Amino acid sequence: MTTPPTAAPPALSPLAAAVRAERLRIRTLRSLVLTLALVPLLTAVTTFAFANGGSDADPLYNAFFGVMFGQLTALVLGTLVVTGQLAGDGGAHVLLAVPRRGRAYAARLLATAAHLLLAGLLAGVLTILCARLATGDPEVGPADATAWRAVIGCALYLTLVGLLATGVATWLRHGVATLSLTIAVLFLVPFVVGVTAGGAARFLPATAGQLVLRAAPADGPLGPWTGLGVLALWTALAVGAGWWRLRARDV
């Protein structure tokens, strides 16, 4: 008795196949897996350790203080996704597998965003749970609707920060230079511009994006979601710069 032939699984579109390959790479390379795991771990541990140590009047923003450390690992992940593939002839091998550069670049961005979004959601949930345990403040616990807005904002913020690093790394093609530039823009420039240019600092990536982590953002032109939109524009600029450089190079 012959068995009927089984139907072949539907073929993936070229973009879906490229995204699947990038997801597999992120999940199998030890450096990327470790860095991705550190995003929620560092965010939550820092929150639990310093939940009562903030001087800001906004308890929700104090609770999400750990995002300052989580974004460092998001920057490292966004950088390693690019620079780890450039080692040796990795860039040429990618183009052999996915000859269309736009498709390869889009697949890298989509796979990185998907992993960072999940890690960011986990970081946000762990943050409000740890903050509730550490402070006992119901305003930073899972029963508060504003806290859940901050959870979603935390996930989007970390995702955008990681993609910003991916775009810069594609543009610069150097890990140390990428981390130096992105850390300076996110951590150092807001303090300098905040002193010398006043309100201009509100439109810097980190300053604007972190408004979504506040229960009551300060008076100004930006709110929680519009501030996140400003960060998205900075990320789009970095991604566009990366695409311009990728398109102009041989490999």
Please characterize this protein's 3D structure:
- The chain is mostly helical.
- The longest helix has 35 residues, at 101-135.
- It has one domain (14-248).
- α1 packs across α6 (101-135), α4 (67-86) packs antiparallel against α8 (175-196) and α6 packs antiparallel against α7 (145-172).
- The protein is 73% helix and 0% strand.
- The N and C termini lie far apart (54 Å).
- It is globular.
- It has ten helices and no strands.
What features would you highlight for this structure?
251 residues, mainly alpha, 10 helices, 73% helix
General form: globular
Q: Return Rg in Å.
A: 20 Å
Which secondary-structure class do the elements indicate? mainly alpha
Distance between the termini: 54 Å
β-sheet strand percentage: under 5%
How many separate helices?
Answer: 10
Order of helices and strands: HHHHHHHHHH
Residue stretches low in confidence (pLDDT < 50, at least 5 long) are none
Helix content: over 70%
Mean pLDDT: 83
Number of domains: 1
Could you tell me the number of beta strands?
Answer: 0
Largest sheet features: none
Briefly say what this structure is.
By secondary structure, the chain is an all-alpha fold. The chain has helices spanning 14-28, 30-50, 59-63, 67-86, 90-97, 101-135, 145-172, 175-196, 205-209, 224-248.
